[in-house]
Amino acid sequence: MKSGFAAILGRPNVGKSTLINALLSKKISIVTQKSQTTRDDIMGVYNEKDLQIVFIDTPGLFDGSLVLDKEMVRNAKKSLSDVDCLLYMVDCSVSDFSIDDKILNSIKIDKPVFLLLNKIDLANAPTMEKVVEHYSSAFPKYHQIQISALTNFGLKDIKDAVASTFSEGPAYFPNDYVSDKDHSFMAKEVIRQELLHFLKEEVPHQCAVGLDEYDEEDSQVMIKATIYCEKPNQKAIIIGKGGQMIKKISMSARHELERMWHKHVTLVAEVEVAPNWRNDPNKLKKLGYGEPKNS
Questions:
Q1: Within its chain, how far is the Cα of 185 from the centroid?
Q2: 16 to each of 20, 21, 32, 74, 184, how far by Cα in Å?
Q3: Where are the beta strands (DSSP E) in 123-277?
Q4: Which terminus of the chain, N or C, has less C-beta within 10 A?
Q5: What is the pLDDT of residue 71?
Q6: Pairing of strands 220-229, 208-216
Q7: Confidence (pLDDT) at 38
Q8: At CA 79, angle to CA 5 and CA 281, rounded to 5?
């Protein structure tokens, strides 16, 4: 059989998490309309007869000054060290090529690179012609694949292209293995997803989620979580008048987890102020950021 690793890179909000969920036909990475949703490398395993593809969803690449920002970008680029190919996603609905050009020129990799021209459902024919022409000229060695992660268009083309870079060898993971992230990780991520969904742009990006208790049985899961924010006024916003916002966030997260796991979920969430946590290496490590990653 053929097996190997493929990293998915690109700017924030380009559709990487939507793509990996579509490729696996299962939600393993949270998705929102806001940028910088993904903070961790997330591994997803696709299996079919005689083929195993290990996709690595990475945080969006951007210039940030915070310790958390730098850690996210460092981990994203580090994921290239042992992959068989790179899938770089481009948003075809964006007419400015300069940022993607800068990122692509900064990536040093001696493996095949595939440019995934995403969101073709949002781009008209003249726009697509400009996109294709630009990347053909600027990066002639990179093979282009036109896709729409949202509508599942082009998924087979991606899998075929990735498989063509693999060598014969044993599977890296059991056939029923889907992701390297467990349910407790997904619980934190789904709560953060709902923070991004219900709150204004600046507040959820300054929040993190920690689990104080996680107990999973055959038919039910008990979760106690703490949402950390940086300022007292943010805590007031997250809790909301009469506790209505935190109830809304918790209920929506609970329903999403129940849909994913087909189990009854009890979720209790509290809010705590942790000033400047995004710039504090010790706090970041406590919250699961900045820990050593296996290469």
A1: 13
A2: 6, 9, 11, 17, 22
A3: 143-146, 167-168, 208-216, 220-229, 264-273
A4: C
A5: 55
A6: antiparallel
A7: 47
A8: 150
Give the domains, in start order, of the chain with CATH numbers: 2-168 (3.40.50.300), 183-286 (3.30.300.20)
* Rama region for 268: left / alpha / beta (φ>0; ψ in -120 to 50; rest): beta
Which mean pLDDT values do the consecutive 10-residue runs of the chain (295 residues) have?
92 88 86 50 88 84 46 55 89 91 87 96 93 97 96 96 94 89 90 90 83 94 96 95 96 96 96 90 77 43
CB contact at 8 A, 53 and 46: yes
Cα angle 264, 266, 272; round to 5: 150
Contact 6, 55 (CB under 8 A): yes
As a whole number of angstroms, the distance between CA 279 and CA 272 comes to 17
Tokens, residue 179? 């992701």
pLDDT value, residue 188: 92
Cα–Cα dist 178/285, whole Å: 26
**DSSP structure class, residue 147:** -
Residue 178 CB: number of other CB atoms within 10 A?
15
**pLDDT value of residue 135:** 97
